[in-house]
């Protein structure tokens, strides 16, 4: 009996060793040009890499109106993403709208509200006034397998952001929300949704740059933004591409970045 | 013990007093608590179109069935049932319901395929879990020709992609040893999350992918392979799950399509040796 099992396991082991593990590598290729003439949607890119003033000017020329910049990075215990300060200043100079998102670290020793504080303080200390923040709730394998703990964590961030008077949005998908929060549906209705849907990375994996494929889930009855393309290059930068609701088209023209008391204002570019 | 609690409470009271009144002390009750989770209730599925020549329809399920229910499923235009043969709860176990469902499907004239929802956190290795299925079915006289391995729900898998790859490989290798055709039931996102985009599983392994916008009729995507994009080592799919959690013949099921030309007639399969077969209805040739 034992030798039989031994033989079996040897056989299995041999087969496993003969297949070296290969992993698909994803290479970003240039994105198609914007051809969408629908004035009710604004065009945006989101990214977490450093930028230059030239890149921002290039984005503006390529007809992107707003950039979503990562302000909090999840590595380690999580930290303020220092790249965002320069990117925000560059975006402002180029006349782009600016939104900030955070990729929180649910396994950190920092609680949700502490991570939000780090982001908020990081921005205000650099002379940036925050109006809204988007919380990334994606990649279930990066979250603990405990929906209740995850809900409490997200709630801690949302509540703190509201204390600061910020508009709060969640960046997620129906499947991510189901996996990470077990379809939590009592988040308050003033929390906005930025959802994503792609068939794969790159331009062959894009879905339509509209909200047609949105289906209500959790507490979200409508969408404010959609990420429809992932890992493409625009102006030689690796980005994801988005559309967002601007509301009345006439109002869209007025939505350029501005200053208050000499400080750059970020957020508030995505309407309901 | 009481003294300790009193001491603790008084310490907390002092701390609470020292916090300025303008800052809320956490944790505080938020209007979004108590936490509620939405339950998904299955609604009736739309009809199978009668003139769709290129795709055949199937349902996949993990609930027990009766003969009349599967006869109803056949009447409704479905050609195959994908039956769960392994239950992941606890350490994982052979799903006994599979035996009667395969019997019922055979009597109703439906083809069957089996899928396993493995338990990656079990003390049982991948190949051991496959063995349980193989033994469970052969013991009741069912010959297994193919098997689909469910690799979905990243939250149910450990976060170590290499371990997950080895676990899946253990199942795939064992299935090959038994001479079975192997397929994976997954999505490009699940595959990325769970295996980090593993691309060397082997060209002989088939793909059953899923894509829905949400549960129920409202969340369906078109019943075709138009939304498939190559990932992992797969350049063509064999099956697509396009609808989740719907009612067909009072069974809660998910709905699938596969290329019709590849399906063997259920009757032919029965004739061989008088034995009952499960699997082998889906091939990789497109």
From TrEMBL, chain A:
Molecular function per GO: lysozyme activity
Keyword Signal among record annotations: yes
Matches recorded under InterPro entries: GH (IPR017853), GH25_Enzymes (IPR051595), Glyco_hydro_25 (IPR002053)
GO process terms (BP): cell wall macromolecule catabolic process; innate immune response; peptidoglycan catabolic process; signal transduction
Signal peptide residue numbers: 1-18
Statement: the UniProt record of this protein carries the keyword Glycosyltransferase: no
Keywords: Signal
Family to which this protein belongs: Belongs to the glycosyl hydrolase 25 family.
Name assigned to this protein: Glycoside hydrolase
From TrEMBL, chain B:
GO molecular function terms noted in the UniProt entry: lysozyme activity
First and last residue of the signal peptide: 1-21
BP GO annotations: cell wall macromolecule catabolic process; innate immune response; peptidoglycan catabolic process; signal transduction
Keyword Signal on entry: yes
Organism: Caenorhabditis tropicalis
Protein name in the entry: Glycoside hydrolase family 25 protein
Superkingdom of the organism of origin: Eukaryota
SUPFAM superfamilies recorded: (Trans)glycosidases
The keyword Signal is assigned to this record: yes
Keyword entries, A-Z: Signal
Family (UniProt): Belongs to the glycosyl hydrolase 25 family.
